[in-house]
Amino acid sequence: MTSVFFNWAYMGETRNPEGLVNEIRELRRSGKLPNEVNVYYDEVSDEILINTDGGRLRRPLIVVENGRPKLKNKHIEDLKSGKITFDDLIAEGVIEYLDPDEEENSYIALRPEDVTKHHTHLEINPLIIFGLSSSLIPYGEYDRGDRVNYGAKMIGQSLGFYLSNFLVRTDTKSNMLLYPQVPLITSDTFDIFNLDKHPSGQNVVIALLCYEGYNMEDAIIFNKGSIERGLGRSFFFRTYTTEETRYGGGQVDEIKIPEKDVRGYRSEKAYANLEEDGIIAVETPVSSGDVLVGKTSPLRFLGRDEFLSSIQNRRETSTVLRHGEKGIVDKVIITENQDGNRLVKVTVRDLRIPELGDKFASRHGQKGVIGLIIPEEDMPFTEDGIVPDVIMNPHSIPSRLTVGQLLEMLGGKVAALRGKKANGTMFNGEKEHDLRKQLLKLGFRSDGKEVLYNGITGKKMEVEIFIGMIYYQKLEHMVANKIHARSRGPVALLTKQPTEGKANEGGLRLGEMEKDCLLAHGAPILLKERFSSDEVEVPVCTKCGSIGYYDWKKNKTVCPMCKKSKLVNVKMSYAFKLLIDELKSMMIFPRIRVGEK
Questions:
Q1: What is the mean pLDDT of residues 405-424?
Q2: Is there a common fold for 484-530 and 535-585?
Q3: Is the dihedral of CA 208, 211, 215, 221 positive or negative?
Q4: How far apart are the C-alpha atoms of 87 and 72, rounded to whole Å?
């Protein structure tokens, strides 16, 4: 007997599992059951699963019966003329949606010519195996699956022309590529989603070449001349928001230049950029710590008497530019929020020119950071004087099997030379042999290789180098957002250790492995300095080993246990002192044994 489950709830058993499954499918195709029903017979565990629950991934496929697709030319013509819709095809049982479970019972053909009598379904178009991002990758069927995943993820991280009204928007954080271009090789999806109006990259001349070791381990080399002509330039926008909040007792925040008697007053220099209303002017250059909007707030936690006597006593709560950022004030918006409170938004923009460490990627998951920027005159060049914009390491191709990247370079070269975009749609794109024939007609080698000359010595390179055009994307991971260091700064209240994170002016943590590195380098004394960020001197009783305290009245340190005053100062990490206090709270009393010096 075969168990039957409905949405993973046990329903009963059957002696004819295949007959039951086929009957449910027939009822669904004839419209007697909803098309959301999916049924799956698991032969290994001898179970039937019937699924109707929400949250399943389902995709449409053409039904094949007796070796023939149910979708005919008449259906396609009726669709084009508007006589029928896609829903009508589902109602007729010509197309049905399968979930991942039922797909296990199916044998799906990619193309109509592949259909045999064993097939159960046919793809509407092989491209719809993929999602939106991954279907934009040209020749993605030639890439390994994980690289298509990486590529799809990085298409989402790429900077581009994301919206045409970006000048009037106040997004918290946004990036805008300055000179976006439509790719020379596109896919059908690109046109369907109108992405030619929202491009997110630039077409570059790329050469596969090792160059002085500066493009090892996925690093890439950029041509300084290309950067000066605008390659990879972008604007980074960040919006700061502040409002005049109303508090109980008639107290309110005030947006203005703070007076000198306000608690936390910075300095006259800090408020120098503010206009009379306490708000910074547009097109003012600012750097980290500069005040954008001056504001004062009433003091918190006041008792009744204090409140009455210190109504004028206020604290400084101005909005300042984030630590480690710089830019120019792009726009200032003054308005009201839904509660009627005055609201100020200041957007700061920063021009980002590609620098060492900025991340770039092709559409095939071949990501890398800039390892070197070379003056144009030192870059290798072809016989025609073409200088590559980017030099990428050829070792990144064989192990990753991103053959699609090589085809894109070939197709991009053909598209640039013939003046017409190439189609790289997965499973439906222009074929490699056609591209090679066209390249040969255009006067180049069919494999895309060319003779290159060393820009420094002028000598001809020993081997011919594969050079072509590719669509390169600048990703949002930029050095300017991530670079961080500190010598001294704020510490956490509880542990007295440096704060964490760039935004808090935090320190860089040294862990166990970093400690091991220092030991391996023969620099253990450095650990003394590195691991003393929370060093503290604690008085310890020499008799009972408990931690003492300083009695201000008697002007001496006292042991809380034996009341003796013979205590010695012991240097320890504050975190260790904290541990002892926590153990005490659990009724464990640790004693510190003090040896003689």
A1: 94
A2: yes
A3: negative
A4: 16
User: In degrees, to the nearest 5, what angle opens at C-alpha 133 toward C-alphas 127 and 134?
Assistant: 50
Classify 140-233+356-474 by CATH class.
mainly beta
Phi, psi torsion values for 338, nearest 5 degrees: -65, -20
Question: DSSP letter at 321?
Answer: P
- DSSP three-state, residue 168: coil
The 10s digit of each residue's pLDDT in 101-128 is: 999 999 999 889 989 999 999 999 888 8
Give the right CATH number for 484-530 from 3.40.50.300, 3.90.1800.10, 3.40.720.10, 3.30.2350.10.
3.90.1800.10
Closest CA to 357 of 372, 340, 339: 372
Average pLDDT across the chain, whole number: 91
Would you list the DSSP string of 177-198?
Answer: ESS----SEE-HHHHHTTGGGS
What pLDDT score does 305 carry?
Answer: 52
Q: Does 309 have pLDDT greater than 60?
A: no
- Look up the CATH superfamily of 535-585: RNA polymerase alpha subunit dimerisation domain (3.90.1800.10)
- Of 178, 152, 139, 211, the C-alpha closest to 410 is 139
List 88, 218, 330, 378, catalytic entry: 218
The kind and range of the H/E element at 222 are: strand 220-223
| CA angle, 163 then 165 then 170, to 5° | 95
SS3 of 424-474: the string is CCCCCCCCHHHHHHHHHHCCCCCCCEECEECCCCCCECCCCEEEEEEEEEE
Per residue in 502-561, pLDDT (tens digit) is 888 888 888 899 999 999 999 988 888 888 888 999 999 888 888 998 888 888 888 888
Residue 29 neighbours by CB under 8 Å, 6+ apart:
63, 93, 96
Beta bridge partners of 481: none
Instruction: Please write the tens of the pLDDT for every residue from 84-99.
Output: 999 999 988 899 999 9
Is 218 a residue of the active site? Answer: yes
